[in-house]
């Protein structure tokens, strides 16, 4: 489960990590329904947020940051984060500039549940800091860099020497000498080094407390006054397997960029939304990822990634309902069941087709335990089962291309 920025910063504050003063302005409710009053009411809430921030900061404000709250990387490049200053509109006041920036952000067509109105922090440097898991090494990993505010994956590929790595034994937890050593290894000194060591300790404590897969601050603002370090952004990803013991993190519509993704989360079906032409409905995460790659190698594009293996192998009808919510041209079903029986999945697929009457071609490659029965079930329903994953992918790509050509 991915938390939005404002939710991540609430978690940061709970462990004493400084964050900029801010106010959240809702565009829609957590369940996805629009807030009342339309644009005029939204502008009124924005003006109220600016007024409240001015009262909290108790000092004149000449600039603020307006941030779209949605699960998306590169928001700044997409124009979804805007620095606004008083005097940028004909009326000249900051509240009007914030409203104008909000309108520009919302006009870009993204589904944005809320806007975060935040103080513009005066900074002298940006750092990077994250805590994640290395399953191969069976340890927690702290990554840090003096070059914050950039794509860390690109930095790791082009200049790996700019990133420092600290491996942490999960049973011992992070030690004081490790946090201090990491600060000095980055070249930080004095108050900044001490503040950074404290920040790492607090972030690690949050990481373990909420059973996170990742907690990341990019950038960490280095200021010239107290507090020395401020979390400029927040990324928190909770391990879905731990949600049964974290009732404080309900599954809500605003966390997902499509209805299908939200409904899949409620069902416990792994699902990712894309914008291609082939809906993937596969059993097994590794197989699904392989089929995703094969589709791209063959020149096709994926509309969604859906994995209904393991405990979900009897949810074929629900999985197909989710796939049909996409504007795809083909549904590609590839499974290889050992514990998950091929005949059960085939029966589910046939029942789904009879019930849902899909308006697009279905390509099937269902193999594994009781494969012979699965073959008989599919043929009895008028489907032509395939036995080679590559052949199934090529057929799906071909059918999708033909559909697109007719359109």
Could you explain the architecture of this structure?
The chain has 407 residues and is of the alpha+beta class. It folds into 3 domains: 99 residues, Dna Ligase, domain 1, CATH 3.30.1490; 121 residues, D-amino Acid Aminotransferase, Chain A, domain 1 (2-Layer Sandwich), CATH 3.30.470.20; 149 residues, Rossmann fold, CATH 3.40.50.261. Helix content is 38%, strand content 23%. The protein has 12 helices and 16 strands. Strands 1, 6, 7, 8, 9, 10 and 11 form a 7-stranded antiparallel beta sheet that branches. Strands 12-14-13-15-16 form a 5-stranded mixed beta sheet, sandwiched between helices. Strands 2-5-3-4 form a 4-stranded antiparallel beta sheet, with helices on one face. β9 and β10 form a beta hairpin. α2 packs across α3, α5 crosses α6 and α9 packs across α10. It is globular and about 75 Å long. The model has no long low-confidence stretch (mean pLDDT 93).
